[in-house]
Amino acid sequence: MSLTVAIPVAGAMGGGLGGILTANGATVLTETAGRSAATQERAAAARMTPTDAAGLGCADIILSVVPPAIAIETAARLAPHIAAAGGKALFIDANSISPATARAVAVVLRPTGAAFADGGIVGPPPRPGGKLPSLHVSGPGTERALVLRDLGLDVRPVDGDVGAASALKMCFAAINKGLVGILAAVAQAAEREGAGAALSGLLEENHPAIAARARKALPDMYPKAYRWVAEMEEIADFLGRDRAESAIWRALAQVYSDLAADSAADGQAIGLIETFRKRVAAG
Amino acid sequence: MSLTVAIPVAGAMGGGLGGILTANGATVLTETAGRSAATQERAAAARMTPTDAAGLGCADIILSVVPPAIAIETAARLAPHIAAAGGKALFIDANSISPATARAVAVVLRPTGAAFADGGIVGPPPRPGGKLPSLHVSGPGTERALVLRDLGLDVRPVDGDVGAASALKMCFAAINKGLVGILAAVAQAAEREGAGAALSGLLEENHPAIAARARKALPDMYPKAYRWVAEMEEIADFLGRDRAESAIWRALAQVYSDLAADSAADGQAIGLIETFRKRVAAG
């Protein structure tokens, strides 16, 4: 069987998944026209096949991995082409969006006749020798999505309808990025008050896994802080605007926004965090 | 050497530390008049010696372990008695208070001539066979506080002045209780959206230490949530009212307040959290 998969944008994640699929014998279509040089290079390196929106609509499976803000727009743009191709495609929305947004994508695609699966990707983009990210899927198209396992992807069905896979992704990100934000906030306070050395010792002694997480996850965060602002807002909406919990992630959005601004300015806050982090590394 | 230590209130922590001190040969004074039956029983079980405020003021070391809201009041009440006894005591404020409040306690005691150490206790009250809580101390009285090591306490000097030990305690609590609050919030959302089973699996796989923390720390929290509200507010103030970070702990205070109310009402939220927690336990 030669399967054709469309990945509309060959970003870091889309290009990485595309490379795995082509290495396993799939034809992988993508749009490169008007995209950045980096995207075009990733598509070429992954042996993806350039096409246009009409071409994407003819694929057996469309795997949408785009910036969360354009998830609905991407589905809407491809919908007429999917319909024109007979509506036989499976559309997997694998974006970091809330369950409500995932359901909106499903509604946009309903008239096309395409099957739909909600998806959520956990883990960083594939790297040689690294662990594969996992693609969690839920909803009516789940069974059909499992064929991607034969093409090298780590596909995992989630019990539940459209929304469950997106909720899973939101929840996992809420815990991970919540913990990193807490560590970034507390690290600064500890250093300002002269308690950094003692705190790193306490963490190593009582919670070695959290200490290890601080060592690794804090520096990974600095260059991504600006992207996490919108993601924290999305998580806050997902948790429910009327619930007290959502204010935690609303505050985290502001913390990441401040860190992104700090990174672009004098780096004072990130300097304090790094002072703390290096103590942990030495602990 | 027979040392006399005053622990004004034999609460769970004060009584527990008192028992260790008396077992190691110290005379430990406490006030029981007007206290609850539980406090009087703890004092007796720990072989503490009942006295009044004047008696407490005569001790070599006064170890203040009281509800945070009465830390300053306790110091102010004992101050004239410490002065009357010649101001030779060492006063250790070991309460969960912000560095600013610890500095205020030091100011209250300055006219007495007593030495002062800021303290912070990390860990639960002593239990037979359990790990001892650690008493972190900073400020001018630190050297003198080390004598409590000979009496069985795990005393750890923190470099820095009055405030550093309190900051350490605040920072450690901010991380621990911040993570628990995040887990409690996300657990509910995951269960509401049908993603609980998948999330527990992802946590076990990717962050086994956080999964283990969820299993143990969530049920420990339910009966304490009402106490954590004020502690989260204190942490928010400590982080700085003008800083974005403080809003995270302000929101956590509301989350714990809601959980305390839930616990007293229908337990719907805690029921969802427990559903999630049991999945992790089974994972």
Overall description:
The structure is a homodimer of 283-residue chains. Chain A has 283 residues and is an alpha/beta fold. Chain A folds into 2 domains: 157 residues, Rossmann fold; 116 residues, N-(1-d-carboxylethyl)-l-norvaline Dehydrogenase, domain 2. Chain A has an 8-stranded mixed β-sheet, with helices on both faces. In chain A, helix 4 packs parallel to helix 5, helix 8 crosses helix 12 and helix 9 runs antiparallel to helix 12. The relative contact order of chain A is 0.10. The interface between A and B is large, with 59 and 59 residues. Chains A, B: This is DUF1932 domain-containing protein. Chains A, B: It comes from Chelativorans salis. Chains A, B: It holds the Pfam family NAD_binding_2. Chains A, B: InterPro entries: 6-PGluconate_DH-like_C_sf, 6PGD_dom2, 6PGDH_NADP-bd, NAD(P)-bd_dom_sf, Pgluconate_DH_NAD-bd_C.
